[in-house]
Design a protein that fits this description.
Chain A is α+β, with helices and mostly antiparallel strands and 228 residues long. Chain A has 4 helices and 9 strands. In chain A, the strands form 2 sheets. Chain A has a 5-stranded mixed β-sheet with strand order 1-2-3-5-4. Chain A has a 4-stranded antiparallel β-sheet with strand order 7-6-8-9, sandwiched between helices. In chain A, α1 packs across α2 and α2 packs parallel to α4 (194-227). By secondary structure, chain B is of the alpha+beta class. In chain B, 32% of the residues lie in helices and 26% in strands. In chain B, α1 packs across α2. The chains are: A alpha+beta (228), B alpha+beta (309).
Amino acid sequence: MPKLYKFLSVFRTGAVNAASGSAYAEFGNTKVIVSVFGPRESKKAMMYSDIGRLNCNVSFTTFATPIRGQGSDHKEYCAMLHKALEGAIILETFPKTTVDVFALVLESSGSNSISECVAGDLPVVISCASLALADAGIMMYDIVASVSVSCFNKNLVIDPILEEEIGQDGSLMITCMPSRYEITQLTVTGEWSTTKINEGMQLCLDACAKLAKIMRSCLKEVASDSQE
Amino acid sequence: MGLPNVSEDLSSEMEVDAFRRLFPLRYFERHLAESIRPDGRPLGKARETSIFLGAVASANGSALVKIGSTTILTAIKMEVMTPSLESPDEGCLAIDFHMPPICSPIVRPGRPAEASPVVSKQLSDTFSSSKMIDLKELSLVSGKAAWMAYLNAAFIMQDIYCLDADGALFDAALLSAVASLSHLQIPVVAMNDDGKIVLVSEEDGQKREQEPVNKEKRKLTLRSIPFSLTCILHKNYILADPTAEEESIMETHVTVVLDTSGQLISLYKPGGPVLAYTSAIQDCAALTRQRVKELKSFLDKANSAMEVE
């Protein structure tokens, strides 16, 4: 049996007033703020484009990792965040312009080695970013939720923490749009048997659906508050 | 009945908003003439301020400060360093003010904001001239030890992050830096046989042969705490604690830094089209004096709330 979901999650929208939309997410030890700016003018050097552009950046505070300044620059995080969101956003709704999605990891729970980056903070960053996009009123096909699992011998662990990540045999991360049952990003590393991977994927998809429910209720709460 | 009214309200609202965007200066002056600001504050009043200590669990000291919607998070990490030859009995305090791209639409990744090195420098100048911290207190193994390698001092690394930029960044950053220093818990360290400084963990502290070198001193002594207030000068008006919008429209700023006993630590007036008379500067100082009292009580309250826990 897989371990219990570590769904000690906090989601809040409207964390940053200066941004068009923003969200704060707390998942275990991981704490993330995402700001969305735009749609705004694309960089001057950009070519004309019929559809909108998405620009993503992920940065870490110097105190995010146990050793100061370890997790400063992660280009692969930026690229993966971009790929995970791109498929969900209706880019046709903001032609010629750019939407900027900037994430700051305040505290990190997972390890930061490149091969294991999928398991730690990235799912939180992705889910938080999709909430911030919704807060900014950017049109999306569905909310994007992301969950990772690690595999040890015969056990599957959802949302692994650092100690668990170090000893893992393999990791799997799914980013999906739960109401459409479509996957935008799937990352598999390490050693998996076919049965395990099926089990792992099903586990992730179920968890994503639950996560999306929590995120949706967070958005609804804000909307009903502002109406009153 | 309801519908036409709603659309009418909306259209008049739109006009005000458009006026604000098109003629920002006139929009502000119309308010100032009535002695009120667009957010409903009187001219000399600062925004609502809150201090939350211990926001970052992994740090030795931390504070989250909000002034209006300006949000600043500070975390302190202490390290051991070898002091410099010129001052072998002193530790060191390093301050870094970061403006990550999440905080403001002006900041883009890869291009650091202009304001961040300026605020960093202002903060370290303020701390060094206010003599708030006695750097000698950070010395772990004093100069009595015969070998240079035995000399060790604590190094305070203060990282200040702006999470939401809405004006008066220096004031909020200073408050956050001061609050995090007041929250700082100095970790207990001991010297091992090689003369290296090692952390003593709380659990097995009893059984160690190593004698902790700083058992008693777990808190820094803050001698005089600096607080600041930034004001905008515009014509004859003085606006305390400006928002980002106000800062962008009216460009003359005066920042006064006072300590708790009311002594002047520093005064910045970085240019601007308005030339300040002595009376205007004195008015700014008077506003700051009031603000210092207010901020001091906020900080005391936050600290006593921590002690209760």
